[in-house]
Specification:
Layout (H helix, E strand, L loop, with lengths): L14 E5 L3 H13 L3 E5 L2 H10 L4 E5 L7 H11 L4 E6 L4 H9 L4 E4 L4 H55 L6 H17 L4 H10 L12 H4 L7 H8 L1 H9 L5 H12 L20 H16 L10 H9 L8 H9 L1 H10 L5
Parallel strand pairs: 1-2, 1-3, 3-4, 4-5
Helix pairs in contact: 6-7, 6-12, 6-15, 7-11, 10-11, 11-12, 12-13
The chain binds fe (ii) ion (FE2) (2 copies).
The site of one fe (ii) ion has 5 residues, from loops.
């Protein structure tokens, strides 16, 4: 709850720092502003002012321009960089208008020309503090809005993820493949996408979409899907339809996550040389997420036991796969897969198949 407490800017006491090498000018501004109820501190030089600024926060600085040591303009540049929320008013000599304009370009809130009328100082201070207050309020609003948008986007992503995983679970309910296999494929794919430099949104999408690669198996008859002996050619043709069935389930969506899931479901059995199924697409014509999943699906199937064979040791599995680099697998993505293998092994440890 403590994070929600926001102090209204008007309730914050504005502290003002007055900088001038002339003690008379310092004093006259100090007394004038104190009489108006402001809390003020003075400094005789830019160096002394920077020391004070490093110790406490000031809402406003009123600084002379011509001073021994660092000039007011130099001080202004430093303050804009280090303390962007501090407003600055410059005080300048009559013949110094060009410098005053430069100060405004550097981000000063205003300037007062010597000799000044004290009312002018008070009006400039009120204006500068009001402008600062408005700027802080709008900055705070922007930050809050950005935070809210981020939170809502995350909530939507969580919802999408849950719906997709439950859809996948419906399929796993009758499939010989396990839920942990699907989960692992998603996580592995995330690692490869990261290695390939994909953006965080698309990485998140492939993590979820890849889990659904075999969702079309829900439409394959049990006697074929659950068969533990080898399949006839005819039966294998039916198994192949899980790609087009999956694509049909996921087609026509405006949600980019489901569009990617559609591409993966349809093309994860395509091969780089065009000898895969269902469309015989080759090379770049196969969507990249599907090219990623095709490598990971083979890897994960080989290194885990299946009802019809024991698990194959990883070194042997990798040798078998290496032979298919450039024919079955996209060679560039295969290299990325090899590069992230240590992370993939971690995921395997985390998400083991149930015995
Ligand atoms: Fe498949
Ligand atoms: Fe699979």
């Amino acid at each position: 709850m403590a994070d929600d407490i926001v102090i209204a800017p008007s309730l914050v006491i504005d502290k003002i720092l007055i900088i001038d090498d002339d003690p008379f000018v310092r004093d006259i501004i100090l007394k004038c502003l104190q009489a108006e109820g402001y809390v003020c501190t003075t400094a005789p030089s830019a160096e002394a002012a920077l020391e004070l600024l490093s110790q406490e926060d000031f809402s406003l600085i009123i600084s002379d321009i011509m001073m021994p040591g660092k000039s007011g303009i130099e001080l202004l540049s430093i303050v804009r960089e280090r303390y962007p929320d501090t407003a600055v008013i410059m005080v300048t000599a009559v013949d110094d208008r060009a410098t005053a304009v430069k100060a405004l370009h550097l981000g000063a809130y205003g300037y007062v020309i010597k000799p000044f009328d004290l009312n002018e100082i008070v009006i400039s201070v009120v204006n500068a503090l009001e402008r600062r207050r408005l700027s802080l309020t709008s900055k705070e609003y922007e930050v809050r809005l950005e935070h809210e948008v981020k939170e809502r986007t995350e909530a939507i992503r969580h919802r999408e993820e849950e719906i997709c995983l439950r859809l996948t679970a419906a399929c796993e309910y009758r499939d010989i493949e396990t839920g942990t296999h699907n989960r692992r494929i998603g996580l592995y794919a995330f690692m490869i996408a990261d290695h390939l430099g994909w953006g965080s949104q698309i990485m998140d999408e492939i993590r979820i979409a890849a889990c659904m690669h075999d969702i079309g198996k829900i439409g394959v008859p049990d006697n074929i899907l659950l068969k533990t002996s080898s399949l006839t050619d005819e039966e294998f043709e039916i198994i192949k339809t899980h790609t087009t069935i999956g694509a049909k389930i996921l087609s026509g969506s405006e949600i980019s996550l489901l569009q990617m899931a559609h591409d993966i479901a349809l093309s994860h059995h395509e091969k780089w040389d065009g000898t895969g199924y269902p469309e015989g697409r080759a090379g770049e014509a196969i969507p990249p997420p599907a090219r990623i999943v095709s490598i990971l699906d083979v890897y994960d199937a080989l290194v885990h036991k299946r009802v019809y064979r024991p698990a194959i040791p990883e070194d042997i599995a990798l040798k078998m796969m290496e032979k298919d680099k450039g024919t079955h697998f996209d060679p560039h993505i295969f290299d990325a897969f090899i590069a992230v293998l240590p992370k993939i092994r971690q995921i395997r440890i985390q998400f083991r198949d149930e015995e």
